[in-house]
Amino acid sequence: MERWKEIFIGKIPKAVYQMQLTYGEKQGLTIELSNGHTCVMIKFGVVQAVRMLDEGIVQSGLYCDSEIKKYKETGFQNVIYEVQDGEFAKYIKQISDGYGEVLNLMQYVVITSNYNVDIVTEWEPTIEIFN
Protein backbone atom coordinates (compact mmCIF):
# COMPACT_ATOMS: atom_id res chain seq x y z
CA MET A 1 0.00 0.00 0.00
CA GLU A 2 1.28 3.44 -0.93
CA ARG A 3 2.62 5.59 1.91
CA TRP A 4 3.91 9.15 1.86
CA LYS A 5 6.76 10.26 4.10
CA GLU A 6 7.48 13.92 4.74
CA ILE A 7 11.12 14.71 4.04
CA PHE A 8 13.09 17.92 4.57
CA ILE A 9 10.46 18.91 7.16
CA GLY A 10 10.56 22.64 7.86
CA LYS A 11 13.35 23.30 5.37
CA ILE A 12 11.17 24.77 2.61
CA PRO A 13 9.16 27.75 3.91
CA LYS A 14 5.38 27.38 3.58
CA ALA A 15 4.23 29.68 0.77
CA VAL A 16 2.36 29.79 -2.51
CA TYR A 17 5.07 29.17 -5.09
CA GLN A 18 5.31 29.47 -8.85
CA MET A 19 7.16 26.50 -10.30
CA GLN A 20 9.68 26.22 -13.09
CA LEU A 21 10.87 22.77 -14.07
CA THR A 22 14.13 22.41 -16.00
CA TYR A 23 15.35 19.10 -17.31
CA GLY A 24 18.20 18.14 -19.60
CA GLU A 25 20.91 15.56 -20.11
CA LYS A 26 23.65 17.73 -18.66
CA GLN A 27 22.05 19.26 -15.55
CA GLY A 28 19.33 16.68 -14.86
CA LEU A 29 16.08 17.77 -13.19
CA THR A 30 15.79 21.01 -11.25
CA ILE A 31 12.53 22.28 -9.81
CA GLU A 32 12.61 25.98 -8.95
CA LEU A 33 9.92 27.29 -6.61
CA SER A 34 9.64 31.04 -6.22
CA ASN A 35 7.48 33.75 -4.76
CA GLY A 36 8.23 37.38 -4.07
CA HIS A 37 10.52 36.58 -1.14
CA THR A 38 12.02 33.11 -1.53
CA CYS A 39 13.54 30.93 -4.23
CA VAL A 40 13.84 27.20 -3.57
CA MET A 41 15.96 25.01 -5.86
CA ILE A 42 15.25 21.27 -5.62
CA LYS A 43 17.96 19.47 -7.57
CA PHE A 44 17.42 15.83 -8.47
CA GLY A 45 20.21 15.39 -11.02
CA VAL A 46 19.63 12.70 -13.63
CA VAL A 47 16.32 10.91 -13.07
CA GLN A 48 14.70 7.89 -14.65
CA ALA A 49 11.16 9.28 -14.99
CA VAL A 50 9.13 12.45 -14.42
CA ARG A 51 5.37 12.90 -14.48
CA MET A 52 3.86 16.37 -14.16
CA LEU A 53 0.14 16.90 -13.82
CA ASP A 54 -2.13 19.83 -13.14
CA GLU A 55 -3.11 19.67 -9.47
CA GLY A 56 -6.79 20.01 -10.31
CA ILE A 57 -7.03 16.66 -12.07
CA VAL A 58 -4.94 14.38 -9.86
CA GLN A 59 -6.27 14.52 -6.32
CA SER A 60 -8.45 11.45 -6.69
CA GLY A 61 -7.53 8.00 -7.93
CA LEU A 62 -3.91 8.64 -8.91
CA TYR A 63 -2.51 8.43 -5.39
CA CYS A 64 -3.61 6.60 -2.26
CA ASP A 65 -6.70 8.53 -1.14
CA SER A 66 -5.90 8.17 2.57
CA GLU A 67 -2.42 9.68 2.07
CA ILE A 68 -3.78 12.61 0.05
CA LYS A 69 -6.47 13.22 2.67
CA LYS A 70 -3.96 13.11 5.54
CA TYR A 71 -1.76 15.84 4.06
CA LYS A 72 -4.53 17.84 2.37
CA GLU A 73 -6.22 18.37 5.77
CA THR A 74 -3.16 20.33 6.91
CA GLY A 75 -2.78 22.17 3.60
CA PHE A 76 0.27 20.18 2.45
CA GLN A 77 2.60 21.79 5.00
CA ASN A 78 5.53 20.18 3.24
CA VAL A 79 6.36 20.58 -0.46
CA ILE A 80 8.18 17.31 -1.08
CA TYR A 81 7.30 13.79 -0.02
CA GLU A 82 8.95 10.41 -0.50
CA VAL A 83 6.38 7.96 -1.84
CA GLN A 84 6.89 4.40 -0.66
CA ASP A 85 5.27 1.62 -2.72
CA GLY A 86 3.98 4.23 -5.20
CA GLU A 87 2.21 3.11 -8.36
CA PHE A 88 4.32 5.33 -10.64
CA ALA A 89 7.60 3.82 -9.37
CA LYS A 90 6.10 0.33 -9.63
CA TYR A 91 5.15 1.01 -13.24
CA ILE A 92 8.65 2.28 -14.10
CA LYS A 93 10.22 -0.78 -12.44
CA GLN A 94 7.83 -3.05 -14.33
CA ILE A 95 8.70 -1.65 -17.76
CA SER A 96 12.45 -1.46 -17.04
CA ASP A 97 12.98 -5.23 -17.35
CA GLY A 98 14.76 -5.47 -13.98
CA TYR A 99 16.88 -2.33 -14.41
CA GLY A 100 14.76 -0.42 -11.86
CA GLU A 101 15.33 -3.04 -9.19
CA VAL A 102 19.10 -2.92 -9.66
CA LEU A 103 19.10 0.88 -9.28
CA ASN A 104 16.96 0.77 -6.11
CA LEU A 105 14.67 3.47 -7.48
CA MET A 106 12.75 5.83 -5.20
CA GLN A 107 9.71 7.96 -5.90
CA TYR A 108 9.19 11.54 -4.77
CA VAL A 109 6.27 13.88 -5.27
CA VAL A 110 6.50 17.67 -5.24
CA ILE A 111 3.18 19.34 -4.46
CA THR A 112 2.51 22.97 -5.32
CA SER A 113 -0.76 24.87 -5.56
CA ASN A 114 -0.86 24.21 -9.32
CA TYR A 115 1.09 21.01 -10.02
CA ASN A 116 1.97 17.56 -8.76
CA VAL A 117 5.34 16.34 -10.03
CA ASP A 118 6.31 12.70 -9.56
CA ILE A 119 9.99 11.84 -9.85
CA VAL A 120 11.51 8.37 -10.01
CA THR A 121 15.23 8.40 -9.30
CA GLU A 122 18.01 6.57 -7.54
CA TRP A 123 19.21 9.74 -5.73
CA GLU A 124 17.88 11.87 -2.91
CA PRO A 125 17.48 15.49 -4.03
CA THR A 126 19.38 18.47 -2.65
CA ILE A 127 17.65 21.69 -1.66
CA GLU A 128 19.02 25.23 -1.80
CA ILE A 129 17.05 28.23 -0.49
CA PHE A 130 17.70 31.85 -1.43
CA ASN A 131 15.99 34.94 -0.02
What does this structure look like?
Helix content is 17%, strand content 41%. The termini are far apart. The strands form 2 sheets. A 5-stranded antiparallel beta sheet has the order 1-6-7-8-5, covered by helices on one side. A 4-stranded antiparallel beta sheet has the order 2-3-4-9, with no helix packed on it.
Supply the key terms:
single chain, 131 residues, alpha+beta, 4-stranded antiparallel beta sheet, 3 helices
Sequence-ordered SSE layout with sheet pairings:
Layout: E1 3-6, E2 18-24, E3 28-34, E4 39-45, E5 49-54, H1 65-72, E6 80-84, H2 87-95, H3 99-103, E7 106-111, E8 115-121, E9 126-130
Antiparallel strand pairs: 1-6, 2-3, 3-4, 4-9, 5-8, 6-7, 7-8
